[in-house]
Specification:
The chain has about 70 residues and is an all-alpha fold. The chain has one domain. Helix 1 packs antiparallel against helix 2. It starts with a helix and ends in an 8-residue tail after the last helix.
C-alpha cells in the first residue's frame, strides 16, 4: 500500500511542477483568453493536490517510514 501512496504523491508533485514550468515559460498572460483561465484552474487544482499530499504525509498516510 505504501508504494501506491508514494506513486500518487510523486505524480501530483510531478504534474504540478511540469504545468508550472509550462505556464511560466510558454503561456502569455492574457486576461481575455479563456485558455489563460483554464491554466489558472488547472494550477489551483494541482496546488490543492499538493496541500492534500503534504497534509497526509504529515499524518503518515502516504508512507509509513519508521
Amino acid at each position: 500500500m505504501e508504494i501506491k501512496g508514494i506513486l500518487i504523491a510523486s505524480t501530483v508533485i510531478f504534474l504540478w511542477a511540469m504545468h508550472l514550468f509550462y505556464i511560466l515559460s510558454f503561456v502569455n498572460p492574457d486576461p481575455l483568453s479563456p485558455l489563460f483561465y483554464l491554466h489558472i484552474l488547472i494550477q489551483a487544482y494541482l496546488y490543492t493536490g499538493l496541500f492534500i499530499t503534504g497534509h497526509d504525509a504529515t499524518h503518515g498516510t502516504v508512507s509509513k517510514i519508521n
